[in-house]
Amino acid sequence: MLMANNQTYGLMPCCRCGIPMAPNDANTCLKCLYYEYDITQGLQRHVTIIHCPECDTYLQPPTTWIKAQPESNELLTFCVKRLKNLNIVRLVHAEFIWT
Predict the structure, then answer these.
(1) CA–CA separation, 59 vs 85, rounded Å?
(2) Count of domains in the chain?
(3) Mean model confidence pLDDT for the chain
(4) In-domain check, residue 91
(5) Would you say 54 and 48 are in contact if contact means Cβ atoms under 8 Å apart?
(6) 47: left (phi over 0), alpha (psi -120 to 50) or beta
(7) Is the pLDDT of residue 2 over 70?
(8) Which helix (H) or strand (E) holds 77?
């Protein structure tokens, strides 16, 4: 027979900013952890992608040109695969953000 665990956990103040939060190993809220640790360290932040406007293709080095529509899954996959050192992290989600 399984018994339900009805334990509740209290809140504690973040050790940096003092906001109430659920306890964790760092005793720090997610916002403060975000500012303290750069999870993208070691990842490439920029990549040059060559686009031919005449035939609407993208250069996949060294000599292959691929067709992909704007905002398509094919273009997103192409862009993500161009990033170096991506194998050191687990990519959970990727999407285009238009600014």
Answers:
(1) 20
(2) 2
(3) 88
(4) yes
(5) no
(6) beta
(7) no
(8) helix 73-81
